[in-house]
């Protein structure tokens, strides 16, 4: 989850919690205040009635009418002040009241006073107030959420600019990082730290790349000399068969060394992004142009090569690397196949799928992209084919996946 989404998620949760607690507390606070106010009014009227010579008889009834009611009774009952409800038949509803009952001596009897006040208007006012507060809270939250996103986006703009620069500079062979300046101290410290690490890693990378280049170039001359000398010796007529066989094996090993050396040089160039002249390449056409050769090569191994071309697969890349990518994948499918096996090629607008029969892997499929990894040591090869394919894909923002199940191997390249 992105930082902003995670932050906004918690922001909304906290606001919702505060809104709920706020509304509950406001509701009960105002309810208490309204109730307390009514009780004070009742107490004030009660004092007035008890202190005055009030003898007007107005019997209380069960109708939902508010006012002061009185009647003569023989005995003094229980004095109460409580909230109650009376049913209104006309409106077919219960109307809430607060009612106070008390007694005043009158000759040999008592006057029973009943003060009744309707609370429906206060209840309506209370609920209207709560709805208004909720609306204001929601409006305030929406405005605060919008402003928070805008402010956060502006505050974190230097951070995202830094991330974008790093994404565009994915290898140490490119130019040094040009991180944007910012007035925010924390982001300035971040950029300085990244620049420091970038410089250190760039220097280490250049030293390693230079060592690889120098070592590979230095090996080319002695390998060529050894190859030429072995060829010269093999050309001698009176050489015995055992010596000739051993020299042939040495010559084959030297050729493998030369191939590995050339491949390592090629990988070094890939990592340093030395290949330019990018054009829009149609890998479908690249594959078609090589199919005749690979069909003939596959016939030597009794392989059934099936090609399903659905649409073009276009990528802006170096045309030579496009050919190398297809060559490596097809070579891999043929080299690691079985007798009377098959190869299926399927191309859509966004995916290239190469499926082939073969022996089961003796290690996780993901490890096959590591350099010098081979699933079967008996098969000749440097173990660099899939590494090269992955480097080419990474160079042009393509994804490559390898999977194996029930002796069926599948490599997918997709945009």
Short description:
Helix 4 runs antiparallel to helix 5 and helix 6 (283-299) packs parallel to helix 7 (319-335). Helices cover 54% and strands 20% of the residues.
Provide structural commentary.
This protein is α+β, with helices and mostly antiparallel strands. It has three domains: 3-151, no CATH class; 166-274; 278-414, Histidine kinase-like ATPase, C-terminal domain (Heat Shock Protein 90, 2-Layer Sandwich), CATH 3.30.565. 54% of the residues lie in helices and 20% in strands. The chain has eight helices and eleven strands. It has helices at 3-51, 120-155, 157-168, 185-234, 241-271, 283-299, 319-335, 385-395; strands spanning 67-73, 80-88, 93-106, 109-118, 278-282, 304-309, 314-318, 342-347, 351-357, 399-405, 408-414. It has a five-stranded mixed beta sheet with strand order 6-8-9-11-10, covered by helices on one side. A four-stranded antiparallel beta sheet has the order 1-4-3-2. The two termini are 23 Å apart.
